[in-house]
Amino acid sequence: MVKIYNDYKDRADFLTVYVREAHPTDEWQMKSNVKEDVCYAQPKTLEQRVAIANDFVQRQKYPLPFGIDDMNNAADLAYSAWPERLYVIDEHGRIAYAGGMGPFKYEPEEVRAWLAKRFGPVTQTSSTAARAK
Amino acid sequence: MSRFWKCTLGIFLGLVLIAFACLSFRAGSPKDVYGMVRYAFPHMHRGKLRAGDDAPNVRLLALDGSNHFHLRERTGSRPLVVIFGSYT
Q: Greatest CA span in chain B, whole angstroms?
């Protein structure tokens, strides 16, 4: 998604919403998380969730704008977000694209296709060339 | 228990074991099957928002941990791509 963000940030807005952990150590931990040293228990307080979100942003050098779901998981419930999902909301506040439930139906390329249909295809190369003009 | 019911139970348990073995192979391990059933399956029926629906306006917290904003505050002049997820 970072590539898509870099390609289309001049044309669309982006927001990452941090929700409940998908694979915390005290629930369904994945071996890949242990290997990559991404080991966190399911936060019990908002402060813990904020701390993990900040860890993520710093360790991954994540450039996208960010928001964090409250501990009542309102955003998760409203958008069926867990464990990961993509949406595009149009200028009128309506859902323009609703992605499938991740990980198997999490398709960033569908978001790129929506943006390409709306604004034309953009790649890092073409956007760099356009800026150089 | 009659012979018929013993056979039926045996076949049923056999099918359950085969399904569990297939899921374990696909998921990675028996522990992952448990995780999938316990944590993922209850969410699989969700996802009722469709294109054309009004986007729910939910309150979010900024990374600084103190400022709040509403998701719809970020909509209006351009399309908004929303990425939901977590670090783990």
A: 72
